[in-house]
Write a structure and sequence with these properties.
It holds the Pfam family Glycos_transf_1. InterPro entries: Glyco_trans_1 (IPR001296), Glyco_trans_4-like_N (IPR028098), Glycosyltransferase_grp1 (IPR050194). With 358 residues, this protein is α/β, with parallel strands linked by helices. It is built from 16 helices and 13 strands. The strands form 2 sheets. A 7-stranded parallel sheet has the order 3-2-1-4-5-6-7, sandwiched between helices. A 6-stranded parallel sheet has the order 10-9-8-11-12-13, sandwiched between helices.
């Protein structure tokens, strides 16, 4: 099978990393991948062993010529189907290109951001199938008017073995700029409002009082980096709250965290949660979007209402004071990843949708 994948994201994390996992799995099964993505993006270089990569200009929703550029690719390479992996213009322009070429179109939806019903009614007419990466996203789509017979589920996945390393504590602490003996809490997310970093900051003061050795590390980048850093300095938390930026050494760092916190206000599923569980790290997260599918309350972590600093503080305090419970939750998280979130399961779920159309 020959599949044209379209990914408009410019950074190799989140959805783009899932695309890379899918390309690798499809290539291993003998399928041919074509990848259209922004010219020079990190995904382009990483995908070269598994796909014929075609870098092209992609300027987002305000780029109507993207449909014509994709139409030319379709005409030149004659794929059996088109798989659109992002919004950022690719969902609409890729859908138009597929319709013009008469090729089946699949769109994967990775976020649970609400869309107006009129937009859902128009946009998803362009797609033969819509894949949600979580049941939570599926419920949002159907609630906004997507016909249920178009919807399919293919959960995001993680390479479990990449994160199942023993902790090199002193090395990880040196990389993060914290003390080796610190009680280490991490947040792995883009620095954007809906990820809820401010909610965690609101919860911190009594936790710092109870645990003087507590260090909180924000792993990620985004437009809120400046405001978050200013608040940390204003509160006098420099050295206790660390903005470590985007990291490509996450597999080595993650096993050394005592707890991962994900206070998101909205979330499709949360790949960072799958990574944390693969590393055997317990989680405190919001009961938002698809998060309860990745974090099972009482199994591999604790869930709290989104946007509630008091509830978040209580859950964090429970686990910080109970190392044995953290260990049990971490072990259960590894088992959950192997059981339900393997890359093989994700690839086969996507292939099942392809076979419906080809």
């Amino acid at each position: 099978m020959r599949v044209l994948h379209v990914e408009g994201g410019r950074h190799l994390y989140g959805g783009a990393f899932q695309v890379l996992n899918l390309l690798r799995g499809l290539a291993a099964r003998g399928h041919r991948n074509l990848l259209a993505c922004p010219r020079g993006c990190p995904l382009a270089a990483a995908a070269e062993p598994f796909a014929q990569v075609m870098g092209m200009p992609m300027h987002g929703d305000a780029d109507p010529l993207m449909a014509m550029r994709l139409r030319r690719l379709i005409r030149a390479h004659e794929p059996d189907l088109i798989h659109l992996h992002s919004r950022i213009g690719a969902d609409v322009m890729g859908g138009i290109a597929g319709r013009l070429a008469g090729v089946p179109v699949i769109h994967t939806r990775r976020v649970d951001n609400p869309e107006p019903r009129w937009l859902v009614a128009l946009k998803y007419r362009l797609h033969d199938r819509v894949i949600a990466i979580s049941e939570g996203i599926g419920r949002v789509l159907v609630g906004e008017g997507l016909p249920p017979d178009k919807l399919r589920l293919a959960r995001s996945a993680v390479d479990f073995e990449s994160y199942a390393h023993p902790c090199e504590r002193s090395q990880a602490a040196a990389r993060l700029g914290v003390e080796p003996e610190a009680l280490l809490v991490g947040v792995i997310a883009q620095l954007i409002e809906r990820k809820g970093h401010a909610v965690l900051l609101d919860a911190l003061p009594p936790l710092f009082d109870a645990h003087p050795d507590l260090r909180v590390v924000f792993l990620g980048k985004g437009p809120l980096a400046g405001p978050l850093r200013e608040r940390v300095e204003r509160e006098g938390w420099t050295g206790r709250v660390v903005l470590a930026g985007f990291r490509d050494d996450l597999p080595e760092l993650l096993p050394c965290f005592d707890l991962i916190v994900h206070p998101a206000l909205m979330e499709g599923l949360g790949v960072s949660l799958l990574q944390a569980s693969s590393a055997g790290v317990p989680i405190v997260a919001s009961r938002a979007g698809g998060i309860p599918e990745a974090v099972r309350d009482g199994e591999n972590g604790l869930l709290v209402p989104p946007g509630d600093p008091l509830a978040l503080r209580r859950a964090i305090a429970i686990l910080l004071s109970d190392p044995e419970r953290r260990r049990i939750l971490g072990q259960a998280g590894r088992a959950l990843m192997v059981r339900e979130f393997s890359i093989d399961a994700m690839v086969e779920a996507n292939l099942a949708v392809y076979r419906e159309l080809v």
